[in-house]
Amino acid sequence: MSPSKPTLVFVTLSVLLFFQSVHSQLQVGFYKDTCSSVEFIVKEEVTKAIVKDRGLAAALMRMHFHDCFVRGCDASVLLDSTPSTTAEKDSFANNPSLRGYEVIDSAKARLEAVCKGIVSCSDIVAFAARDSIEMAGGLGYDVPAGRRDGRTSLASEIIGNLPPPTFNVDQLTQMFANKGFTQEEMVTLSGGHTLGRSHCSSFSDRLYNFSGTSMQDPSLDPRYAAKLKQQCPRGSTDPNIVVPMTSTPSIADAGYYADILANRGLFSSDHSLLTSQATANQVVENARNPIKWKAKFAAAMVKMGQLDVLTGTAGEIRANCRVINS
Ligand code: HEM
Ligand SMILES: *[C@@H]1O[C@H](CO)[C@@H](O)[C@H](O)[C@H]1NC(C)=O
């Protein structure tokens, strides 16, 4: 009897994760002797939050991405601005769109009560992202841990580290390459847009102001464009209006890739994956083989979670995820 497709995917994923963890300074089970209930507690808080608001799965996954791409996975995204500095969370890329901070706060409060000063905020974010993906129907994965928290967060570091929705495929490829990702991994991770929602401002130029004209982006499916125009009136800057990324914004499926193929990718950056042969082939493959995409996505998230991490005695274990220790 030959092994089933899911079995093969599982074996492949385990091998991938094994080799990645060999190179990492992080460890699966890092807290087993110091705070053995950590992953259970985080999962409980994440589950509670997502049951109340399904959209939080998207939010917590994106939080890990925005943390890791700016200064590494050091929970810099969680720090509040101070009188002298504007923090990442108050930059245009995160305010008002990044959410879920209170879920991390409640997990942290419970962890401080049972194992004070042990668990970093950056590890909590990594666990929460994994739990969110799993709850949304993606593949679960082991999270190597042992990250420590940074002491700096600057809104000025967003540009050059986080991609804007106007990027073309070469710009996306370059920015992900700067973080050590292949172009295929960039396409895989873009599938994060299978979950969640967006404010109108992230794509309204495609509806009303394509390339600085008063045209509509000709690469956008006209029926989809008409629907988006209804939801996002010209000139609207209402932060309360949000549009779902896909028709199933709470399910981690490969619908994102099918949408792109139908010219229903929400952002220019999403659509741009069709504009090179190599990335277009990846889009087709992911649309056709969602199980394989889920496995590749899980492996890419593990890799992302190791970007420029602080370990050992570097950084600190913050007592409150919103402020550095005094
Ligand atoms: C490839 C380059 C990427 C670009 C240009 C991009 C851009 C954006 C933009 C503009 C939004 C909407 C913000 C708003 O107006 O509300 C957004 C939302 C989102 N992004 Fe990305 N993103 C990228 C990659 C990723 C990756 C790698 C992930 C995760 C693995 C991700 C996960 C999400 C999620 C889940 C949301 C919805 C958040 C929510 O519902 O709260 N994105 N992204
Ligand atoms: C229209 O697009 C151009 C660049 O393509 C930009 O400079 C301008 O601010 C946009 N106008 C509006 C009203 O958003």
Explain what the structure shows:
This protein has 326 residues and is mainly alpha-helical. It has 2 domains: 23-161, Peroxidase, domain 1 (Orthogonal Bundle); 169-300, Peroxidase, domain 2 (Orthogonal Bundle). The protein has 13 helices and 2 strands. The chain has helices at residues 5-23, 38-52, 56-69, 101-114, 121-135, 169-178, 183-190, 204-208, 222-231, 255-261, 268-271, 277-288, 290-304, and strands at residues 197-199, 242-244. The chain has a two-stranded antiparallel sheet. Helix 2 runs antiparallel to helix 4. The mean pLDDT is 94. 2-acetamido-2-deoxy-beta-D-glucopyranose binds next to loops. Its EC number is 1.11.1.7. The active site is at residue 66. It is found in: Secreted.
Features:
45% helix, binds protoporphyrin IX containing FE, mainly alpha, Peroxidase, domain 2, binds 2-acetamido-2-deoxy-beta-D-glucopyranose, two-stranded antiparallel ribbon, Peroxidase, domain 1, 2 domains, 326 residues, globular
